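Hi U.,

Before I forget, here's the chain from the pilot set. I'm dumping it here mostly so it's searchable later in email.
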Amino acid sequence: ERAVFRRTASHDVIELIEIAPGADLQKDVLDQMEFEPVISPNLKQMDERIFRHVKMEIELFGSLKDRVTYHEKDHVIFIDLTGISLASEDEVRWLGRSLDLILKPITKERGPVDA
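Structure:
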């Protein structure tokens, strides 16, 4: 509950990408671990609404394309699925087709990406 990590298929490391509000990086996270993770140069604070005892009241924003971020250097994509709920197989298929259309230009040029 203090930090968010990621690992991709192309990198054999665990990367710290977010930290909880008010958490001390050294004392609350790093000193509690048995290994030292890579710390993202873009380390962000986790959304403080996660820690409240009320509904987050998330507003959906933008199109699916706005939610996809491509990191060219690492050939990795990040997809923000906050607030998206898929209630049927048709919706899952729609998401797959939509992501395929968004990613096709990237994968055509550089091959499959890590997500």
